[in-house]
């Protein structure tokens, strides 16, 4: 499940702007449940407080299935955020297993979108949808392709941007998008999230009109850093994919992250405690949080020497506003 972030009140210059990040905001770990077992108190609100201190102002919560999309919309309405509606490629079999079949599942997604097009808590994109050939044990390639196409119909019907997923499937991914009329006229847009592909793939996707979003997993290797550096400012979005995709000391990005000023490090990566020693108000060690979005932004800033940190965050803020059709006046926590 995913999210977009935006500062709610005057903040220090180094935190100005809105940061785009991807967050599994409805994941049970934010409520103290790990691997199906209650391990500590629910610290969802504490996590949100840390996000606000880091400059997070609003979120676009992404649905990865029909049920998750319903939850995303409910949470977005409750918190005054925004949401997406769609089915992740690894869950594509849900279309065929749904009572009434694929048509009924698609209609249920369609109805969910049509009922939530206005005001806070509204749908701002279709997805997460796409192709994932790394995990075909969840859904075969042909099943993924079929139901990727069907969701593109929803994006065209409602003229909403796409929230896209692509793993080890670039050729089929871009071919389907082109065949369905995306990436040619420049009017139908979207973002390829959690990008881990090549420089060549970055360039092709940007030339098709798509934005590229990166997180900790997008910055693991030197090749990843080269691809991230190739993203044009007007096509850049940022994310965390929390509670996953943490930035760690073994990643190629760590050398750049080590230059993060102490004043920002305390906001983006506050002191944490190990799970057995949970302390309310402190993050759980190893659990990525939305506040880490600043760390992702810092790495992109350092990859583009000479470009001020504030300029990077402000550009991503504007990209987010424009892509998802948000209004500055409604970006208040």
Walk me through the structure.
By secondary structure, this protein is α/β, with parallel strands linked by helices. It has helices spanning 44-53, 66-79, 93-97, 102-114, 141-158, 170-179, 199-207, 222-229, 254-257, 262-268, 293-303, 309-324, and strands at residues 3-4, 20-21, 33-34, 37-38, 60-61, 82-85, 123-132, 162-167, 190-192, 211-214, 236-238. β5, α2 and β6 form a beta-alpha-beta unit. α4 (102-114) packs parallel to α5. The chain starts with a strand and ends in a 9-residue tail after the last helix. Residues 4-22 have low confidence and may be disordered.
Strand order of the largest sheet: 5-6-7-8-9-10-11
Share of residues in helices: 25-40%
Q: Give the total of beta strands.
A: 11
Radius of gyration: 19 Å
Largest sheet: 7 strands, parallel
Helix-and-strand structural type: alpha/beta
What is the 3D shape? globular
- Mean pLDDT comes to 89
Content of β-strand: 5-15%
Poorly predicted segments: 4-22
Distance between the termini: 19 Å
Tally of helical runs: 12
Order of helices and strands: EEEEHEHEHHEHEHEHEHEHHHH
Pfam family, one: TatD_DNase
Protein name: Mg-dependent DNase
InterPro entries: DNase_TatD-rel_CS, Metal_Hydrolase, TatD-like, TatD-type_Hydrolase
Binding site for a divalent metal cation 2: 165, 193
């Amino acid at each position: 499940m995913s999210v977009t972030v935006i500062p709610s009140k005057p903040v220090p210059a180094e935190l100005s702007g809105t940061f785009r990040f991807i967050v599994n905001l409805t994941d049970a770990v934010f409520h103290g449940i790990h691997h199906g077992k209650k391990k500590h108190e629910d610290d969802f609100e504490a996590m949100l407080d840390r996000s606000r201190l880091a400059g997070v102002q609003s979120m676009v919560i992404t649905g990865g299935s029909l049920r998750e999309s319903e939850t995303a919309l409910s949470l977005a309405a409750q918190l005054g955020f925004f949401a997406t509606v769609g089915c992740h490629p690894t869950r594509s079999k849900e279309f065929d297993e749904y009572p009434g079949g694929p048509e009924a599942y698609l209609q249920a997604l369609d109805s969910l979108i049509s009922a939530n097009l206005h005001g806070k808590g509204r749908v701002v994109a279709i997805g997460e949808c796409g192709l994932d050939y790394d995990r075909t044990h969840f859904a075969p390639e042909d099943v993924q392709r079929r139901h990727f196409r069907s969701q593109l119909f929803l994006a065209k019907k409602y003229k909403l941007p796409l929230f896209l997923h692509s793993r080890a499937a670039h050729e089929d991914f871009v071919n389907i998008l082109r065949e369905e009329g995306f990436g040619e006229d420049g009017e139908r847009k979207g973002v390829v999230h959690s990008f881990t592909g090549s420089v060549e793939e970055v360039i092709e996707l940007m030339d098709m009109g798509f934005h590229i979003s990166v997180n900790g997993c997008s910055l693991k290797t030197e090749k990843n850093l080269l691809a991230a550096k190739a993203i044009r400012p007007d096509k850049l979005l940022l994310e965390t994919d929390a509670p996953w995709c943490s930035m760690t000391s073994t990643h190629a990005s760590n050398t750049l992250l080590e230059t993060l000023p102490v004043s920002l490090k305390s906001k983006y990566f506050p002191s944490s405690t190990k799970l057995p020693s949970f302390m309310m108000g402190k993050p759980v060690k190893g659990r990525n949080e939305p506040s880490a979005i600043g760390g992702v932004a810092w790495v992109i800033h350092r990859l583009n020497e000479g470009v001020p940190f504030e300029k990077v965050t402000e550009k991503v803020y504007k990209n987010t506003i424009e892509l998802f059709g948000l209004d500055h006046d409604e970006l208040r926590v």
